[in-house]
Structure formats: structure tokens, C-alpha cells
Specification:
The protein has 378 residues and is an alpha/beta fold. It contains 14 helices and 14 strands.
């Protein structure tokens, strides 16, 4: 099956008891045993739930993974992956990552005795040089949040695979529609399904997908033990959202291209970052590694915070709010929102300024989006 068909059919056969075409919501917490020591297919909904299993099957199919787990949030999914670490272990991570991931690394896992080394994601050699005998994970985003740096996943995998070090890729921004990290050599894919997979800004969730049975067993054990599962109704909402992922991503990208080209030509914009622009330093990598450029456009205004505040206050169609990936267009100020947990020095080192704005371009009419940006900038 092709991607769009998988999104609608994988894990979603008609329900056998009634013939229901849509996967039912199964709210039951517990399930009847056949006899002592013989549970049915499901036992207790923290361990597994039919609606959640349908979603996990679908997401695994979309990423080309053998195994999938759905969590109550993207951060819960990330935490489950990191749960395999023990005191004295070491992680190599790209220096540009989501602020929430950085916060989890620094305030939860480093105090537990986990060593973390950050490297420039532009060069695979940096990952190779940072490895230690105790390195247990390599962590990257591509593109990164919010400055859309691209990491050559295949090159990094060429470093990690011979050493049997799992390579984890946060694939939230491109979604599985535009990028398939497992095909590029990654071992684990993480998603905030709150974003493009859910697609409607109405359900939190996360997912971990892998082809490695041992890693999956470790993540599954932690999920069952810690309990950060996605509930049946949220699983159903996410499954409904994923059905339209392919068609949504095509429109997201078309609008984002138009927005990026408009901003790149505007006199008040200092720089525009979008992998689909030839000016992006790794545009050729984006063409080779992905099937599309995505829907996040980041730009920097002259005038710092004052200019940024004036811009967001004038917006009428773009909503100034956290998050991304919904059908509606959003504007974010990373310095005070997605990356507020970083220090001023860390944000400066990452290249996030007070004038940096991240746009999550929705699927509204392209002309209306450009008109709103025009009036806000002018």
C-alpha cells in the first residue's frame, strides 16, 4: 500500500463483531480472562487497548517500523526512549533541539548521572568525535526547532550503526509523509503526534516507532510500568486525524513555500529560513533526504523584541500561540515560548534572537495568509 492508503487502512479493518468501518472507541479498562492464567487478547488498558493498538499499528506502518507505541504526550514518548539509560551512560545530541527535550536532558537526566554532549548537527564527524565507550544513544532532530537546521541522517547512521549505538530521530516537523528516518538508517523515530499527525490542535500525544524488537520491548516495559499511555478517546481522535495526513501535508507545504518566498523578498525581514528556499544552507540535503520541505517557516525581524511584538499584535489570521502542525496557521516567539527554558546565552549560541519568529503555516487560503503577513509587517 502507498502512504495515503496506509494512513486510512493500516490497523483499521472493519470491526468484526459489528462490521463498523471506523475503529471503535474502547473505553473499557479491564477485560475478561478465559480462566486462571489465560487472559484474552487484552487484559488491562494501561498495558494495551484496542483503539490505541489500532493507532500504533497505523503509525508503525507509516514509518516503515515493525513496532509502535502511543503515549500521552510527545515528552512522555521522549522520556520512554531515554528510560533505557543508566547512571554513567552517555548521550550525544545535536545542539539544536526542541527546548523541552533540552530541558528533559538537563534537569531530569543529567542529575541522574547521564552524560550529555551536544554537537553541531551539520557534520557527522562531530558525532563520531563525541562518542565515548559509554555512549548509549545519539539524538537528532531534522529539521531542528526552530531554526530548521538539517542533519544528514544517513551520514550520522553510518557513524552509529557499526558501533551498535541506537540513533534516535525526532521526526515531528516533517512527519512520516515527508521523511522516513528508519529508511535512512535510524533505529528509533519519535513524534509529538499533537502536531501534524493529529493535525487539528485538539489532542495531545506522542509515539515511538522502531524496527528493533529489543528496544521496543524496553520501551513497552517502561510504558506499562510508568503508565504514560494515550487514552482510548485520544487514540481515536489521533487516528481520525492521521487519515488526512497526506492531503494536509501537501497543502501545508504549498502554502509554506508561498509564505517563505514572500518573507524572503520583504524589506523588513532580515533573514528567512525554509529548507525549500535555495538560500537554505542545506537545501540540496533537503532535496535528497526528504520528499518535501514541510510547513515551518522561521524568520528574523530587524528591531528585536519590539519589532516582533508589534508584528504578532497586528496579526489577524495567524494566531499567536504555542505548538504547531494544526490546520490553522500559528506564530510563535521561540525566545519566550518554545525555547524559554534555555538561558539567554544558550539561545544566543543556538542563533535564536528576540526578533526570531516561527510560523506554522496552516491550510487556509494562500492569498489570505500573505495578506495577513503583509498588513502585519507594513
Amino acid at each position: 500500500m502507498q502512504f495515503a492508503t496506509k494512513a486510512i487502512r493500516a490497523g483499521q479493518a472493519p470491526e468484526p463483531a459489528t462490521g463498523a468501518v471506523i475503529v471503535p472507541i474502547h473505553p473499557s479498562v479491564t477485560y475478561a480472562f478465559k480462566e486462571i492464567g489465560r487472559p484474552a487478547a487484552f487484559e488491562y488498558s494501561r498495558s494495551a487497548n484496542p483503539t490505541r493498538t489500532a493507532l500504533e499499528t497505523c503509525l508503525a506502518a507509516l514509518e516503515g517500523a515493525a513496532h509502535g507505541l502511543a503515549f500521552g504526550s510527545g515528552m512522555a514518548a521522549i522520556d520512554a526512549v531515554l528510560s533505557i539509560l543508566r547512571p554513567g551512560d552517555h548521550v550525544v545530541a545535536a545542539s539544536q533541539i526542541y527546548g523541552g527535550t533540552h530541558r528533559l536532558f538537563e534537569t531530569i537526566y543529567r542529575p541522574r548521572g547521564i552524560g550529555i554532549t551536544y554537537v553541531d548537527g551539520d557534520e557527522a564527524d562531530g558525532f563520531a568525535q563525541a562518542l565515548r565507550p559509554t555512549t548509549r544513544l545519539v539524538w537528532v532532530e531534522s529539521p531542528t526547532n526552530p531554526l530548521l537546521q538539517l542533519v544528514d541522517i544517513a551520514d550520522v547512521a553510518a557513524v552509529t550503526r557499526p558501533r551498535a549505538i541506537p540513533l534516535v530521530v525526532d521526526n515531528t516537523f516533517p512527519s512520516p509523509y515527508f521523511q522516513q528516518p528508519l529508511d535512512l538508517g535510524a533505529d528509533v523515530v519519535v513524534h509529538s503526534t499533537t502536531k501534524y499527525i493529529g493535525g487539528h490542535s485538539d489532542v495531545l500525544g506522542g509515539a515511538v516507532l522502531t524496527g528493533d524488537a529489543n528496544l521496543h520491548a524496553a520501551f513497552q516495559f517502561y510504558q506499562n510500568a510508568a503508565g504514560a499511555v494515550l487514552g482510548p478517546f485520544d487514540s481515536w481522535l489521533t487516528l481520525r486525524g492521521v487519515k488526512t495526513l497526506a492531503v494536509r501535508m501537501r497543502q501545508h507545504e504549498a502554502n509554506a513555500r508561498a509564505v517563505a518566498e514572500f518573507l524572503a523578498a520583504h524589506s523588513r525581514v532580515r533573514r528567512t529560513i525554509y529548507p525549500g528556499l535555495a538560500s537554505h544552507p542545506r537545501h540540496e540535503l533537503a532535496r535528497r533526504q526528504r520528499t518535501g520541505y514541510g510547513a515551518i517557516v522561521t524568520f528574523e525581524l530587524d528591531g528585536g523584541r519590539e519589532a516582533a511584538n508589534e508584528f504578532v499584535r497586528r496579526l489577524r489570521l495567524f494566531v499567536f500561540a504555542e505548538s504547531l502542525g494544526g490546520v490553522e496557521s500559528l506564530a510563535c516567539h521561540p525566545a519566550t515560548m518554545s525555547h524559554a527554558s534555555l538561558t539567554d546565552a544558550q539561545r544566543r549560541e543556538a542563533g535564536i534572537t528576540e526578533g526570531t519568529i516561527r510560523l506554522s503555516v496552516g491550510i487556509e487560503d494562500e492569498g489570505d495568509l500573505i495578506a495577513d503577513l503583509t498588513q502585519a509587517l507594513n
